[in-house]
Amino acid sequence: MLAHQGVDGRVNCWMYAFLVPGTTPTAANAALSTAMVLVPNAADGWLAVDDEVVVYDVRAQACHVFEGVAALAWQCLDGDGSIDDILTDFADIFEVDLELVRQDLVPLFTDWFEKELIVENQND
Predict the structure, then answer these.
(1) Which of 47, 39, 45 is nearest to 109 (CA)?
(2) Rounded Cα distance, 95 and 78, in Å
(3) Domain presence at residue 124
(4) In a domain, 97, yes or no
(5) Given Cys at both, which of 56, 66, 69, 88 links 15, Cβ 3.0 to 4.6 Å?
(6) H helices, E strands: number in the chain
(7) Predicted structure pTM score
């Protein structure tokens, strides 16, 4: 993936990618469970730029830019903890009610999962 910050401050990205056999995600046929351990889809590319995360979605051939809590949530998808673990960590770190964190983040993770930007970790 190549990224370049344009004169307007926005990140433009280009990616040369191909699907490797065995990396086809299965999110389209599954429902998100907060017990799942999720990781970024290996078919896509992503990078952190300052306080943003830029993700290149191979299927849609589009860049997504996540900021703030969304960028932080993306970077927590490292394959070590479940969505429930991430939600608990956010509630503890930001000292807010777990249910409020759940209401804010589960729809975000669900959206990413349905778009196949994130997939279940198969390397447990």
Answers:
(1) 39
(2) 22
(3) no
(4) yes
(5) 56
(6) 3, 7
(7) 0.75
Token pair recorded at residue 31: 């429902």
Total residue length of the chain: 124
Tokens of 120: 């279940």
How many domains in the chain?
Answer: 1
Distance in angstroms (rounded) separating the CA atoms of residues 106 and 103:
6
Q: Which long-range contacts (CB under 8 A, 24 or more apart) does 12-17 make?
A: 12/63, 13/54, 13/56, 13/63, 15/45, 15/56, 15/58, 17/43, 17/44, 17/45, 17/56, 17/58
For tokens 């190549």, the residue is 2
12's tokens: 């433009």
**Domain hosting residue 66, numbered range:** 2-20+33-119
CATH of the domain at 110: 3.90.930
